[in-house]
C-alpha cells in the first residue's frame, strides 16, 4: 500500500520531508526522484501512471509553486480515475506551515476540485494521515485474511477511498 507523493520540482524539499516522515513510520512511498526508471525513461507518462496504479494513496504537495504545473493535476486525475485515497498538503511557499484555523482562507487559494479531499496543512495533519493510513492498512489486511476477492477489491474501491477521506477529515 505505497503512497504516491505528487509535487512540483520547486517543492521538492517539502516532498522529501514528507517522505522522511513516511520512512520513519515504515510507510512505503513513491517519489520520482528516487526511482531510477523515472530518471532514465523516454516515456515518463507511462512510468508515472504505472506507479500511481501501484499505490493506494496519493498526497499532492500544493503551494503557489504548483500553479502552472501540468504534472500535479495529471497525477491527481490519474489517481481519481482509479479511486485512490487522495489528500493535499498545502503550505505557504515561504515554508511556514498553516494553522488549522486558517484553512478556509487557504481553501480560497486551492483549486476547487481539491476541496473534495482532506487538506493537510501542518505536521499534526501529516500524523493524522499516517494514523488513518495505518488503520486503512490494518483493515485491508483483515479483508485479505478473509480470502474474499470481492472484499479485497472493495477495500480499493471508491467506497473504501470515500471512507478513508471521511475518517481523515473527521480527525483533522
Quick structural overview:
Residues 1-137 form the TIR domain. With 172 residues, this protein is of the alpha/beta class.
Overview features:
single chain, 172 residues, alpha/beta, Rossmann fold, 5-stranded parallel β-sheet, 5 strands, receptor, Toll_tir_struct_dom_sf, TIR_dom
Q: Structural class, from helix and strand content?
A: alpha/beta
Largest pleated sheet: 5 strands, parallel
- CA-atom Rg in angstroms: 16 Å
The first-level CATH class of the domain at 3-122 is given as Alpha Beta
Series of H and E elements: EHEHHEHEHEHHH
Task: Give the CATH superfamily of the domain at 3-122.
Answer: Toll/interleukin-1 receptor homology (TIR) domain
Query: Which percent bin holds the helix content?
Result: 40-55%
Unreliable spans are 142-147, 149-155
Main β-sheet, spatial strand arrangement: 2-1-3-4-5
Strand content: 5-15%
Beta strand count: 5
- On the 0 to 100 scale, the average pLDDT is 84
Protein name: Toll/interleukin-1 receptor domain-containing protein
InterPro entries: TIR_dom, Toll_tir_struct_dom_sf
Domain TIR: 1-137
Keywords: Receptor
Amino acid at each position: 500500500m505505497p503512497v504516491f507523493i505528487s509535487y512540483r520540482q520547486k517543492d521538492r524539499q517539502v516532498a522529501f520531508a514528507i517522505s522522511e516522515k513516511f520512512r520513519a513510520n515504515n510507510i512505503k512511498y513513491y517519489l520520482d526522484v528516487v526511482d531510477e526508471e523515472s530518471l532514465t525513461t523516454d516515456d515518463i507518462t507511462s512510468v508515472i501512471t504505472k506507479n500511481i496504479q501501484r499505490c493506494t494513496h496519493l498526497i499532492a504537495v500544493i503551494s503557489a509553486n504548483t500553479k502552472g504545473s501540468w504534472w500535479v493535476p495529471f497525477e491527481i486525475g490519474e489517481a481519481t480515475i482509479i479511486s485512490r485515497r487522495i489528500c493535499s498538503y498545502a503550505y505557504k511557499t515561504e515554508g511556514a506551515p498553516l494553522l488549522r484555523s486558517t484553512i478556509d482562507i487557504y481553501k480560497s487559494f486551492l483549486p476547487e476540485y481539491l476541496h473534495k479531499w482532506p487538506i493537510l496543512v501542518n505536521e499534526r495533519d501529516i500524523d493524522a494521515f499516517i494514523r488513518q493510513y495505518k488503520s486503512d492498512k490494518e483493515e485491508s489486511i483483515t479483508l485479505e485474511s478473509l480470502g474474499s476477492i470481492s472484499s479485497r477489491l472493495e477495500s480499493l474501491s471508491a467506497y473504501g477511498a470515500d471512507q478513508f477521506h471521511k475518517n481523515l477529515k473527521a480527525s483533522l
